[in-house]
Write a structure and sequence with these properties.
Number of helices of chain A: 9
Strand content of chain B: under 5%
Distance between the termini of chain A: 34 Å
Number of helices of chain B: 12
Shape of chain A: globular
Structural class of chain B: mainly alpha
Oligomer: heterodimer
Order of helices and strands of chain A: HHEHEEHEHEHHHH
Radius of gyration of chain B: 18 Å
Shape of chain B: globular
Number of strands of chain B: 0
Helix content of chain A: 25-40%
Structural class of chain A: alpha/beta
Helix content of chain B: over 70%
Strand order of the largest sheet of chain A: 2-1-3-4-5
Radius of gyration of chain A: 17 Å
Largest sheet of chain A: 5 strands, parallel
Number of strands of chain A: 5
Largest interface: A-B, 26 and 31 residues
Largest sheet of chain B: none
Chain lengths: 207, 292
């Protein structure tokens, strides 16, 4: 069902970081330093990946060592983790949650389900490629990725922030909002709520 | 004077943030974790202040964190930093009553902003916060008013200078105990941390605040924490003669509340108020009767 859509070039996700120019201005670097050092995570437990997150954040793997801590609400979060398969019904909530977060914001997707559908590859009501609907910054692949992989994904994200990549996922989302909306509408219908947030994005933040 | 006040605010911010960093580390060790760097809270607050977007609900929403921050900074400025008159800033223009009034002002201003955001979890948090405050204030005010009565002055500098031979915490141990229990609640530690109870009401009053609003709230919370500790040091421990002494004394008081907070579970709202009205208030009343 999704094969009919334009599959966007994902080269930016596969770039090697070494070739990047670091942020040019000093202030940018300082801001990037704080962003890298402090990451508030909204763990959106959808699939089986939800069970890998508690050990990541508690005594066993202690993500707080890297400045990664849980956020209570989307308003306070920097990163949303989509942990595994998403039904279309849940996708609506995830989009709404993502749009409530404040920029700069990042998406980490766990597991093969968010990459190609995984074991739900032929399901009629499951998202096969999360990147069609939300701008994913880092994938942690596997079925399921263990807490080590999740920490690895966070460290990859911190590197991307450190190197001051010119286009974060949230910028791509705003720039290509029509593309994302088209994909979202194709599976969710026109009822993407709340309308004011959808309008805000569609107007390029001008409202 | 302005320079001294600015310096006081910067000191309070840095100290408060570092104390919270140490607090997070101690909590982590209790969980058998390593814990974040000590400077983590400074990173958090700066990152939040550098966020590009912050959802707002109009000017009253802006007022919330601003009133909170104003109240915290004013509270700090009206409390003398040292007992020898150094770095006094504007502190001699206010007394204990002004400080107590300002301490209650911040949460009320924030209640307004949370109300305008119409977030049910925020409203729930504010309801819990104000109810808890009614419980916290009773033993705190009882012991502080008794202190004012015994010292014969509401001027913090005079209360400080009256304890040169013996600090008030030794002279009036019951009043000190009662206000320490209240301080644990004022600093948001268990068992009185029901206001921002993470899994029950998300983060309570702060649910709807993101970006720079949350950054401002975090920064003012650090300043306010230091101000409360400073008040306790001044009133019960004879103040401090130097920065090192001040840091040591306030840190010891802070660490006491941290240890109380780590080992206790969380009271429900009515349990907290029930406890505060009965036990610490009774201790405070006993302290008053003992010394009359």
């Amino acid at each position: 069902m999704e094969s009919g859509y334009i599959i966007r070039e994902q080269s930016s996700l596969e770039k090697e970081l070494e070739g990047y120019d670091r942020s040019s201005s000093f202030i940018d670097r300082v801001v990037d330093f704080f962003r890298r050092k402090s990451i508030f995570v909204l763990a959106y437990g959808t699939g089986c990946g939800a069970v890998e997150m508690p050990p990541t954040f508690t005594s066993r793997y202690d993500a707080e060592r890297f400045g990664i801590s849980g956020a209570a609400t989307p308003r306070q979060a920097d990163v949303i983790i989509v942990s595994g398969y998403l039904s279309y019904k849940t996708l609506r909530r995830v989009i709404r949650t993502y749009e409530q977060m404040s920029s700069p914001k990042y998406v980490i997707a766990l597991g093969s389900c968010t990459i190609n559908g995984g074991m739900y590859w032929d399901s009629y009501n499951t998202v096969k490629r999360l990147d069609l609907y939300l701008p994913v910054d880092v994938y942690a692949n596997g079925c399921m990725p263990r807490p080590e992989s999740i920490l690895d994904a966070f460290i990859a994200l911190q590197k991307r922030i450190e190197y001051g990549e010119e286009k974060g996922g949230w910028e791509r989302y705003i720039e290509n909002i029509d593309y994302y909306r088209e994909n979202q509408r194709a599976v969710l219908g026109d009822d993407i709520h709340p309308a004011y947030e959808a309008d805000w994005y569609s107007s390029g933040g001008a409202l | 004077m302005i320079l001294q006040s600015l310096l006081a605010v910067v000191t309070a911010y840095l100290t408060g943030m570092l104390y919270y960093g140490i607090y997070r580390n101690i909590t982590a060790r209790f969980h058998k974790r390593i814990g974040p760097p000590v400077t983590q809270n400074i990173y958090d607050s700066f990152k939040l202040l550098f966020k590009k977007e912050s959802t707002s609900y109009g000017w009253i929403f802006y007022m919330g964190p601003i009133v909170m921050a104003t109240a915290s900074i004013l509270t700090l400025l009206f409390i003398p930093l040292f007992n020898d008159g150094e770095m006094e800033g504007v502190s001699r223009y206010g007394d204990l009553f002004v400080v107590l009034y300002l301490m209650a002002m911040g949460p009320l201003g924030n209640a307004l902003a949370v109300g305008i955001s119409a977030n049910p979890f925020g409203a729930m948090g504010i309801g819990r916060g104000l109810t808890r405050m009614a419980g916290l204030e009773l033993p705190f005010y009882l012991s502080l008013m008794a202190l004012v009565y015994f010292s014969g002055s509401s001027d913090i500098t005079q209360i400080m200078s009256a304890q040169e031979d013996m600090p008030n915490m030794m002279r009036y141990p019951l009043l000190f105990t009662a206000s320490m229990i209240s301080l644990t609640g004022f600093l948001g530690k268990s068992p009185f941390d029901v206001v921002g109870a993470p899994v029950e009401v998300y983060s309570g009053p702060a649910s709807e605040f993101g970006g720079k609003f949350l950054g401002l709230l975090m920064s003012q919370s650090a300043i306010f924490t230091f101000a409360k500790l400073l008040l306790m040091v001044d009133l019960f421990w004879g103040g401090a003669g130097s920065l090192a002494e001040l840091l040591l004394k306030s840190f010891i008081l802070f660490i006491i509340t941290v240890f109380i907070g780590i080992v206790y579970g969380r009271f429900k709202v009515h349990q907290a108020v029930d406890f505060l009205i009965k036990i610490p208030s009774a201790i405070a009343v006993a302290g008053i009767l003992l010394h009359l």
